[in-house]
Specification:
Helix content: 40-55%
Bound molecules: zinc ion
Strand order of the largest sheet: 1-2
Shape: globular
Order of helices and strands: HEHEHH
Distance between the termini: 23 Å
Number of domains: 1
Structural class: mainly alpha
Radius of gyration: 13 Å
Largest sheet: 2 strands, antiparallel
């Protein structure tokens, strides 16, 4: 049981990392996955911060749907989009 949970989390993290590898920042092209974040195009559609996903019991499909609503932005460009909302930025940063 426990091992299964960890595997699912690993899978989610791996999926997020792979997605970032394939999707550099849409504004400046930054490709370092440690600097990439997910930005919800429509904040009202935001169900949950993707950075929290690996700790949740999400399926890959649910994660995919959520990622489809997002643009990949690097930390710098994300900061510009959100202006002074740096808190949002930090929450969305995903450490993989
Ligand atoms: Zn950028």
């Amino acid at each position: 049981m426990k091992a299964k949970k960890i595997n699912r989390r690993k899978k989610l993290r791996r999926y997020i990392a792979k997605y970032k590898e394939e999707h550099p920042c849409i504004y400046c092209g930054e490709a370092h996955i440690g600097l990439l974040t997910f930005h919800h195009r429509n904040p009202e559609e935001k169900r949950l911060l993707i950075s929290h996903v690996p700790r949740q019991e999400w399926s890959i499909n649910t994660l995919k749907k959520e990622i489809e609503k997002c643009d990949v932005l690097c930390v710098e460009c994300h900061r510009k989009v959100h202006g002074t909302e740096s808190k949002v930025l930090l929450e969305e940063k995903i450490n993989v």
